[in-house]
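I hope you will forgive my troubling you with a question about protein structure. The matter concerns a single protein, recorded as an amino acid sequence and a row of backbone structure tokens. Please examine both parts with care and let me know of anything in them that strikes you as inconsistent. Thank you for your consideration; the sequence and its tokens are set out here:
***
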Amino acid sequence: MNEMLENWEDCNTTLYNDGWEALAVYIILQAVQDYRDAVNLEQEWLRKMPDQEIKLPAGLESSQEIEDFFYSRWFAQLTTLDGEMLLNRIKKEMNK
């Protein structure tokens, strides 16, 4: 019986850790997609209305706010990735 409980605790800990890792990956992937969307919308706005202040739809962060996330302590807690390197890679991919 104790062996079953010990194995269950190991399994539960693994599921717990895997769940947090999956959530961290999802948060970062969502930030990447949000950044791409924000940059595209900002560029489109500037092409259509270069003299007006950029107004993004409600709930969408500006590209600068999302860039700040990649340099934040929260990002560093979510992953061991280098936020600046990731951001540079995204920018390079978008300029192709």
Notes: The chain has one domain: 26-94.
